[in-house]
Amino acid sequence: MPVQSEAVSQHDTARPAKEWIRILADYRESDTKRSSYELAITLGPFVVLWGLAWWTMSISYWLTFLISLINAAFLLRLFCIQHDCGHGSFYQNRTVSDWVGRAIGVLTLTPYDVWRRSHSIHHSSSGNLGRRGMGDIHTKTVQEYRELTPYNRLVYRLYRNPVVLFGLGPSYLFLLQNRLPLGLMDKLTYWISAMSTNAALFLWLAIVLYFGGLAPILLIFLPSTLLAGTAGVWLFYVQHQFETTHWDSEEDWQLHEAALKGSSHYVLPPVLQWVSANIGIHHVHHLYSRIPFYRLPEVLRNHTELAECNRMTIRESFHNARLHLWDENSKRLISFAQEKAL
After folding, report:
1. pTM of whole model > 0.90?
2. Where are the strands (E) in the chain, listed by range?
3. Cys-Cys with 131: which of 84, 119, 125, 143 at CB 3.0–4.6 Å?
4. Residue 265 φ/ψ, nearest 5 degrees
């Protein structure tokens, strides 16, 4: 068993998880001006960089490609704003939040209403071994893995391979899976969300193709989309997949305990924290999802218990990509090699 990192060894706080709800309620109010400002300084540069990248195609395709990679940072931040809209935390007016989220969903290739529902299921079941499979990274227990056939073990090992999770996975998720309301196909609302997003996306790309041909799609649209998607999947992964994360059986599972102990505090440099809209402060977000992202640092400044809880550095987070199975005996996420040694 590898040495437990400092980042994942500090997830206990003196205060019970449920007591934090009352305290965190003081931070739930969003500021319309601040939210609009955050949207403007994210969407504005995204549009400008798109235009600049298009203009540089007549100068150098390499320069166009580089600008599109930089623009992935703003696309990622737009997704994080869409995420806040889905929780009703970005604007106090829920209708405004929803329509801002739907508009951004075209840029992020993510049908807003479909994603909002699946993400809500993730929040209401995170850490519950009896309710896995919707809006999360699929994780098997050691016992479940041992009961698989050799073929299904191979399939699971391939799925958990970093090349698949962070390489092929984002392409499949954003380009293919999001085109249908998978898991929610019995409700007309989610079909409308997926198909209207597809129609708007098709219209956008058709206009780009008409005026610029394939070049802007291949050099601007795809690189920025796939890089932002990869970063987003990585962030989602490290938020819950770490050595001392928290899983319980259905009968023992407690919502607030799972939220606090099963979500990481990903400590990022200021630039990356801005780009990811403070989503690394994920344990606080899961405890109280109605807090707007720009108020999450305020919570940590005022409550050092939470600031020290579940801390994880970038260097420490890379270790998590080698963890694949939940060991119910040791209450730890372990690697395939560790499972074999048990």
Report:
1. yes
2. 140-141, 265-266, 311-312, 325-327, 332-334
3. 125
4. -110, 95
How far is it between the farthest Cα atoms of the chain? 62
Contact criterion met (CB below 8 Å) for 104 and 81: yes
What are the CA-CA distances from residue 255 to residues 57, 125, 207, 246 (Å)?
51, 7, 46, 11
Closest CA to 102 of 193, 2, 188, 173: 193
Q: How would you class 125 by CB atoms within 10 Å of its CB: exposed for 0-12, middle for 13-18, buried for 19 or more? A: buried
Compute how many other C-beta atoms are within 10 angstroms of the C-beta atom of residue 105. Answer: 28
Name the one residue in this structure whose structure tokens are 């919570």.
299
pLDDT score, position 135: 79
Strands (E), 88-214: 140-141
Identify the residue whose tokens are 């993510």. Answer: 110
% helix, strand, coil for the chain, step of 5:
70, 5, 30
| Banded model confidence at residue 62, pLDDT cuts 50, 70, 90 | very high
Q: Which of 114, 105, 80, 96 is nearest to 32 (CA)?
A: 96
65-96: pLDDT as tens digits: 999 999 999 999 999 999 999 999 999 999 99
CA–CA dist 259, 268 (Å, integer): 20
Query: Counting beta carbons within 10 angstroms of the beta carbon of residue 219, is it exposed (0 to 12), middle (13 to 18) or buried (19 or more)?
Result: buried
Cα–Cα distance between 317 and 235 in angstroms, integer? 10
Question: Is the separation of the CB atoms in 235 and 72 below 8 Å?
Answer: no
Neighbours of 133 (CB within 10 A): 10
- Rounded to whole angstroms, the Cα distance separating 47 from 55 reads 12
What is the length of the chain?
Answer: 342
If you search the block for the tokens 């400590």, which residue do you land on? 267
The CA-atom distances, in angstroms, between 214 and each of 57, 239, 245, 320 are 12, 36, 44, 38
